[in-house]
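_Backbone structure tokens_
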Amino acid sequence: MAAAAGTDRLIRKIHGCFRPAPPPPGPVSFVRHFSYKDIKKATNSFCRIIYSDTHGAAYRANFDDAGLALVKEVKEFDQSKEVFYREVQLLGRLHHRHLLALRGFSMEKKCLLVFDNVENGSLKDHLNDPLRTPLNWRTRLQIANGVAAALEYLLIFNEPPVYHVSVNSSSIMLDENFIAKLSDVGFLGSSGNHTGPADPKDCIEAECRNIIFQLGVLILELITGQSSEKEGADLIQWVQEYHLGSSIYKLIDPDLGNDYDSRELRNLLDVARLCIKSREKPVLSAARLFRYLQKKIDTPIG
């Protein structure tokens, strides 16, 4: 009963009845200023691309004195260095097990962020590369839970909420223990304003819907072993052809063989379906959906 009451209070907060209390203010993590020359050398002249989108690109880097790292170019701040530095300050305050930690930045010829290393590369690498050992079922469940935990932190528990989040297999990194880390997260647009609406209810109705939709597509990628294109439209259409009925087992990544739990598979598909519906007609609030995912997979978020 106490847990249910706590959940109800959280949901009322999200729907704007009252704003959640902000977490205690924490110090900005120490972040180093890297020279453009060092970053260019570490990324082999920006040739070691991990992923690229309209906002910029991410690169593998190997620094002489700082070791392996991920470098992210942020194009939208190129004309506003002051706003970019504010973004660095905000990102430095984010601390979560499933977020890449910010290590440093550069504001010289490009706006560049330097994050912790990701030993096992991106999730997309593991889904697409036939030379890599396939991810087992338990690891895939843990990745889904980890991403959901990060989104819960960013959208609900962080103050201010973080609305610029890209959730896909390219931007999800895996550490040495295959712990999922979101790498494409931001606060501000080039104008210095938050990229999403200020009201939590508006977030549910706009920005959060799209982020949760992306989570649904990601879950389908984990189940099928297929990387999605066209914002998930191709994968969603393919999955819908099976009507999520008796033939759902044909959707399973062949690399899994019989190494999965049928109940967990159906539960995960249920969550994916709810997430995908959220873009047009939300069934659950963000808070309730994250808890639903935790309950369905039967492993704690975090």
Summary: The chain is about 40% helix and 15% strand. The chain has a mean pLDDT of 79. The radius of gyration is 19 Å. Strands lie at 32-33, 49-53, 56-63, 67-73, 102-106, 112-115, 164-165, 172-174, 180-182, 185-186.
